[in-house]
Amino acid sequence: MLVYSFTSAQQIKPLNNANVQSESPETLDKAGLANQVRNEFLHAWQGYRQYAWGYDALKPLSKKGHNWYAHSLLMTPVDALDAMLIMGLNDEAKDAEKIILDSLRFDYDMDVQNFEVSIRILGGLISVYELNGNKRFLDLATDLGNRLIKAFDSPTGMPYRYVNLVTGKASGNISNPAEIGTYIVEYGVLSRHTGNPKYFETAKKAMLALHKLRSPINLTGTSINVETGEWMETDSHISGCIDSYLEYMLKSSILFNDKDMRELWNTSIVAVNKYLADTQYDGFWYGHSDMNTGKRSATVYGSLDAFFAASLAMSGDLTRAEKLQESNYKMFMLNDIEPEELNYATMEITNANYILRPENIESAYYLYNYTHDEKYLRQGRDMFQNIVTYCRTPEAYAALKNVKTKEKRDYMESFFLAETLKYAFLLFDDNLSLDFNKVIFNTEAHPYKR
Ligand code: DMJ
Q: 444 alpha carbon to ligand 1 midpoint, in Å?
């Protein structure tokens, strides 16, 4: 395995793994690394700025813009703006603020995915409002919230997956726990700022409805009908489709001091640790099991699952969090870049994509804050530097189709700016641009004051 150490803003010096592990903490140049992350953020942003300005996202290889729907919702500028404010990129922030205030609107007759628009756009607008105090961002957030909330108009109170921004017509009755239970943080903060409790109450009602439908052994499955409450897929895990439902139980219990949400977390985490945690192979992992029987169905784990070390640490379970972060790092370094999914029993890759996901660096950031152990700084540095090595393009950053061949894919997700580089920056930032203990991040890394 090859990792790299930055000796100056642009100069990369290869190190071997043995050197990295035995390196003394003093040699870590945190300020230099924070500056390096900031420079790479600028590089990625400038690529978007030059080739995709006004679009939702950049296609970095074809150097074009891409919209998710018929009209742009300015996904990248909205998602990235609070990172610019945190990193002190004031000119870029002004530029992004201007395009948002001049042209972001939601009165388009189009169906949008409730979950993605909520965590990225609603979540981003609210955190920008908290950071810059400009009420026009809160007005935009409130307008969007009033359109999205119509998705919750189902017989169970669990939201549909899609909603039309103009008509309010919802669709997509087969959903999943993540797309049902990842609203309470944004909606709760929106309620706090508007004084209208309906957002928080609606999001909480959906989580409670879903929790009621858990199995007798307190697990949830992968997909469910929001009209009937019938489970469509009973596979249980901590990965995509379930992940942020668990995360939001814990985060909302802390952010709003909500005892019901704490109870949801307490009930769920016991079952997750009993039926999904797996220590029988080399390391500590969370696999898949049937939600009704608890029987192991697959020994797979991936880049999305890596968020869970952060949640465990936040819940106070540092023992499991640290063990899981060891596995996270091992997964990342297996091929220098983490795969979307691997079989932890054989260490074979089962999905070789890397779409610039943040969760592994996010967990290193949380672990560093809770333990102050410098090994998490080194983990973050190695992961960040490998991303620079393999995903950087002359214009911006690109996802990888295959972490073995390192073949690039023509897409740069907005969460690369909103999350991956923000967490990397905060991990190294000594100026405390953001005090970890005073905020709760939504699942897209948008911070809200506690
Ligand atoms: C982000 O949009 C969010 O972190 C979400 O909760 C999961 N997936 C991506 C990043 O991987």
A: 6
Amino acid at position 282, single letter: D
Cα 339–Cα 340–Cα 344 angle in degrees, nearest 5: 70
With both helix axes pointing from N to C terminus, report the angle between 318-333 and 374-391 in degrees, rounded to the nearest 10: 30
444 CB near ligand 1 (under 6 Å): yes
Q: pLDDT digit string (tens) for 431-447? A: 888 999 999 999 999 99
**pLDDT tens per residue across span 95-116:** 999 999 999 999 999 999 999 9
Annotated catalytic residues are 116, 243, 340, 359
Residue 117 CA to chain centroid, in angstroms? 13
To the question of domain 9-449 being in CATH 1.10.3720.10, the answer is no
Q: Can you give the residue ranges of every domain in the chain?
A: 9-449
DSSP state of 396: S
Give me the half-sphere count of Cα atoms (radius 13 Å) on the Cβ side of residue 31: 1
User: Which residue, judged by its Cα, is nearest atom 10 of ligand 1?
Assistant: 357
**Ligand 1 pocket check for 422: Cβ under 6 Å:** no
Helix or strand run (H / E) with residue 223: strand 223-225
Ligand 1 centroid to Cα of residue 23, in Å, is 32
